[in-house]
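REQUEST FORM: STRUCTURE PREDICTION
Request ID: SP-0412
Submitted by: Lab K.M.
Chain count: 1
Length (residues): 213
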Amino acid sequence: MKYLPVYEKAALLTLRIGWLGIALAILIGAVCACIRYYRVPVLRRIVGFYIELSRNTPLLVQLFFIYYGLPKIGIQTNAEICGAVGLAFLGGSYMAETFRSGLESVDSIQRESAVSLGMNPYQVMRYVVIPQAASMSVPAFIANIIFLLKETSVFSAISLMDLMFTAKDLIGLYYKTTESLFLLVVFYLIILLPVSILGSVLERRLRYAGFGA
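STATUS: Completed
RESULT:
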């Protein structure tokens, strides 16, 4: 148990970078989803290219490009920023598809009915489309968050002292393989299990409220 403080420090670093990357991914995803949903000319094709590029290349390759490639063209960064930006770049594409599928799951007849009742486009989106789209998107949204938090395990490749880096370091220095891997699993469970439980509770509450039924 003497290694607990080291794992606690690594877990805080993992959470800080992970949640910053996820927050940026949500923002990127929301913007990209709106562009694709409203079929904005030119931008729709750019977003489509970004999504295909992001989803079809590993996070590790993206991190290497950001960490080692960008300084070659004069863009300096550090490991923490690199981790957050890489996670946002990957996560933004997944969030974009999640939000877009949620928006498109709402039947067009509901939007047309809302317009016929005198609602303007803003009111239709706020009171009709978004509540239902949010309910439909919750399972995939939570799955994306869990996926991105797990992807932080590759941060060790750019010398970030996250949980995976700490476990490998302790194994290499002290040969405490069982203890190191056990604590690694425990700390990932501590991080990920509450997110999974919260997602399940949120999904049930939204469905009981009548959204997405």
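NOTES: Residues 18 and 149 are 6 Å apart (CA to CA).
Reviewed by: T.R.
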